[in-house]
Design brief:
Chain B: Keywords: ATP-binding, Nodulation, Nucleotide-binding, Transport. The complex is a heterodimer of chains A (414) and B (307). Chain A has 414 residues and is mostly helical. Chain A has 16 helices and four strands. Chain A has two domains: 99 residues, D-Maltodextrin-Binding Protein, domain 2 (3-Layer(aba) Sandwich); 250 residues, no CATH class. The radius of gyration of chain B is 25 Å and the shape is elongated. Classes of the chains: A mainly alpha (414), B alpha/beta (307).
Chain lengths: 414, 307
Amino acid sequence: MHKLLLIIQREFITKVRSKAYLVLIFLSPILMIGMFAAIFYFASKENKENYKQVSILAVTTPEIAADIQKENQNITVEYRTVISFKAAKKLVNDQDLNGLVYANPLSNMMEIYGDDKIPLHSLETILEKHWVLQQLKNKGVKEAVIKQATENTPIHYSKKDDSHATIQKWVKGTVAIGSGYLIMMFVIIYGNSVMRSIIEEKNSRVVEIMVCTVKPFQLMLGKIIGNALAGILQFLIWGILLLGGLFLLQIYFPSVGGNSDKIEQIFNIIWEINYTEIFVGFVFFFLSGYLLYSSFYAAVGAAVSSETDTQQFVHPILLPLMFAVYIGIVTVINGNPNGSTALLFSFVPFTSPVVMLMRIPFGVPMWQIILSLALLLVSFITTVYVASKIYRIGILTYGNKPSMKQLVKWMFQK
Amino acid sequence: MQEPIISIQKLYKTYGTKTALNHISIEINKGSVYGLIGQNGAGKTSLIRILNQIIDANSGNIIFKGIPMTPNAVRHIGYLPEERGLYKNMTIEEQALYFGQLKGMTKTKALEQLNYWLDRFDITDWRKKKIQGLSKGMAQKVQFIITVLHQPDLLILDEPFSGFDPINANLIAKEIKTLAKNGTTVIFSSHRMESVAEMCDALCLIHHGNILLEGSIQNIQKKYIQETFEVTLANYQENELALFLNNAAYKTNIIQKEDDEIRFEVVNNQKETDHLLQDLLKVGKVISYKQHTPSLQDIFIKTIENA
């Protein structure tokens, strides 16, 4: 036990004081935030530009043109009086306008022409209203009666306020996808770190001295645990930085523009989330998922002599992890994080660390979490046993990279 | 009679269908320097790895310090492998503390021993240096310190002089001899016969997992000594020399002949050596008469060829 602790300590210290680790901790969040900010900035800029571009040529009466502009304040209405329909259509095409309203209630001609950006429903309603007005006038109905009937209608439309539910779904979805993605990243980064550390030990030949002092299994386990602790420390630092950042954002941007209510609502929902549960969930699922995958990474590291030889063996390890992220994202986006697909993959050991963590923000019964962790633990014990068999022989074998057949042979070699 | 520190009994090891060690038995006395020689793939590394408990034997026993070897015995063994290295990013002090503690030393004891060795090699200012900043020779010195830091009873050295320049090789050889003098038993594996001859008290030649030769170097050389003599005569008489050269009891090979002096190698086919000397005196005045002792290299090659 004392030896295992010494190995864990060495691995942990070596990892956390390396430059790569410091860069990963402090530079990566900045880069990631910068990347997301850039995506949001360009996406919103694109939206605004698209919105501004909607413009309509209105060859109609001043009343209809005025109504179109009144009902659709965000579009540009170019008003003309005397022009043929053919010429008007040509003008729309030549000037790259979005559409044309060619309407004169007196001449029984009401045409709408345009692409799918024009507010078709609104234009139809306006033309229909003016058509009816003209018909009534033609039938001799007094203007005052028409005015009374068409203006001040008792119809009132009020929008259902589901913004809280929408924002809540959006925030929880972001937290879920973010943490699932993070767990995948952590498993890959720290699994790779274990693999590289073993290859380095093998290449520098220090492994021969190590295995005459400690059992290969102890050495492998020490490496895996030491790296896991470095991973948890990184997650803690990132968690503190993220929550601190959000707290500062709330203080310094409390009421920017006209969206202050929405921002306040978003922050309220952010603080409503149970971070203790997510943190504990992350630690447990990261640990069990990482332990499961890192034993494979360790076996690969021991089997090969250089990093370039690892590709062939690492790909099969990455596939289930990526699959888990896709399954998680799809179920969260479809709004079905507790559906049968998500449920199934939150129990399959190779996908459960990612999928289950993505479900946690939406509320998962405790028995499901415990069952998922128990299955992961059983799988870890099996894989670490198999991996240690490969590791034990691989670390003392130099030269050509072994074939899959050879690895299987090592598993059963005494 | 000296008590053996380690007794290897009928050790048997196979890798699949290949036999690496074929029921070999060796006894090594405390404080001796024991040479392990053999070609590549002879079984030396397998034997060393079994002694270090890196791999297990199929059968056989190892008695260490009077009792069957336990996993704890590795605390009393220092191992310098042929393919060696240390952690590149750690300082010498960190490595010493790490390996010392893994071998069961306290931090204080490990530091105390490190100070002793750094001082002994006159490299106290290296303490905070990382291995990646050292030359190959310097790193080898540190490697030696790490191997002996925990004051092992048994030291297993595989090609200990590889990577050293002659001066540092000499320094390490001196330290190994001092350690042996102070009671440390050394197993010395090498291809370089001159090192084995210089360092070892006894040796064992392994070939295809079998022991071909075993015992003290003097006894082995005595066993292989030939009835070959190198003789120099002065004032010799030509007719007597011709008679000697034609004598069927001897096979003579002239090396040098100058004026009144002749040097030749003679193989005595008779049992008695007294007759040879008497016959030589008849030819001329005997200036030198030396029995030829074969080198370890010769014995090694001859034994392997005859195996």
